[in-house]
Specification:
412 residues; Aspartate Aminotransferase, domain 1; Aspartate Aminotransferase, domain 2; 2 domains; 4-stranded antiparallel sheet; binds pyridoxal-5'-phosphate
């Protein structure tokens, strides 16, 4: 008999079978809370607070400035990058961590466009995360390029001999739809362009293989599924074959070959280390480093399998219990789905607020989308069942229509 995804005992059995079942113990989630917003801000593994206390009290407090050498703060960015690399299909030494995603994206896109100096077009898609579009516009203005908006249903149709870079977000922040990274990378190359990927909504839940896809460059944030904490620094990956010619625009001293030679003229560091600009954020990197302990020994394919199992269950339950009351906007095909499920509803904001009041945390994206993220390290199958039960209760009781739930907060 096929297991019934809507059955609570079956959900408990699925949790007991999961290869990630002990990972949740590394997190101190509030008792009784169902946290489905790890696609926006990941939960902190317990090790983060311990590590930060130690860094502040001992490395900074006692070691003071000597900790740049004795605690190897200066090598922290590279060490953290090396721990993220396996989730990206990247080799150690090819991932840099340091600035915000927006700043990293700017630096990376400028460098990518500079590898095609004879081409004048930067292709992006209109439904991409706003910062990606704003940064692309800024890059285009700086370099005298034209931004071309592609059709999200067929980005490759916008490629021609004028295109320098096709810059896409792997998993869409609003719908959870996923692009075919290897296929679109190959299409970009077929047109002589570079393929640039934003992996914010993938890394830590949807593993990619950048090297075997022959992607050119990628960036991604670390505060979602990697649990690095609010505003934790982003990563950049540059294909090894591009690193020598990679010419990023914020040529600060930490990206210099020898920062402490204090030379007059800039000479870039070797490899992806040249993506550095200023002094690395040691506290934030230390928190991220500790958060990555939760991924130690985890097989990337298990993250993906568990993420799909959770979203499959959520979709099955939504279909069975909610029917036409909501519209599922996330693709159902595994090959096109990230690690979140988005539901369209005219009162999506109120729906999310009412759910939060009932202990189920998702979020809202304008104009009418309720998002539910499934972080495979700590979301369980029983949480999925509880979330849909609460969703049914909210809709049945009309709680989402309460006027106080219509008042928008600064962060939605
Ligand atoms: C696809 C994507 N890119 C970029 C960002 C954010 O950039 P930053 O870390 O600079 O705020 C987000 C944030 O959610 C995102 O979803």
């Amino acid at each position: 008999m096929t297991p019934d995804p809507c059955d609570r005992a079956e959900a408990e059995a699925a949790d007991a079978r999961s290869p990630l079942r002990h990972r949740r113990d590394l997190f101190d989630l509030p008792e009784g809370l169902v946290y489905l917003d790890g696609n926006s801000l990941g939960a902190p593994p317990r090790s983060v607070a311990t590590r930060l206390q130690q860094v502040v009290a001992s490395e900074w407090g006692q070691g003071l400035i000597s900790s740049w050498n004795t605690a190897d703060w200066v090598g922290l960015s590279r060490r953290v990058g090396d721990r993220i690399a396996p989730l990206l299909g990247a080799a150690p030494g090819d991932v840099h961590v340091g600035d915000s995603t927006s700043v990293t994206l700017f630096k990376s896109l400028v460098a990518a466009c500079r590898l095609r100096p004879d081409r004048r077009v930067l292709v992006i898609e209109p439904s991409t995360f706003p910062t990606d579009a704003y940064v692309a516009a800024g890059v285009a203005r700086l370099l005298g390029l034209e931004v071309r908006w592609c059709d999200p249903a067929d980005p490759a149709a916008s490629l021609d001999e004028d295109v320098a870079v096709l810059a896409l977000t792997h998993v869409d922040f609003r719908t959870g739809a996923m692009f075919d990274l290897p296929g679109l990378t190959a299409a970009a190359h077929g047109a002589g362009a570079l393929a640039h990927w934003d992996l914010c909504h993938s890394t830590g839940a949807v593993p990619v293989d950048l090297a075997s896809a022959h992607a050119d460059a990628a960036v991604g944030c670390t505060y979602k599924y990697l649990n690095g904490g609010p505003g934790s620094p982003a990563f950049a990956w540059v294909h090894p074959g591009h690193q020598a010619a990679w010419d990023q625009p914020v040529t600060g001293w930490f990206g210099h070959a020898q920062p402490f030679a204090m030379e007059r003229d800039y000479a870039p560091a070797e490899g992806v280390a040249k993506m550095a600009s200023g002094t690395p954020p040691v506290l934030a990197l230390s928190a991220l480093d500790a958060a990555l302990d939760a991924f130690d020994g985890v097989r990337p394919e298990d993250l993906r399998a568990e993420s799909l199992a959770l979203t499959d269950r959520f979709l099955a339950l939504v279909d069975e219990r909610l029917g036409a009351a909501v519209e599922v906007v996330t693709p159902r095909e595994h090959a096109r789905r990230g690690s979140q499920v988005s539901l369209r509803h005219p009162e999506a904001y109120g729906l999310v607020q009412a759910l939060i009041a009932r202990g189920v945390v998702g979020d809202f994206r304008t104009p009418d989308v309720a998002r539910f993220g499934f972080a495979p390290l700590y979301v369980r199958h029983v949480d999925v069942v509880a979330a849909v039960e609460r969703l049914v209760e909210v809709l049945d009781a009309g709680e989402h229509l309460r006027p106080d739930y219509a008042v928008r907060q600064a962060v939605t």
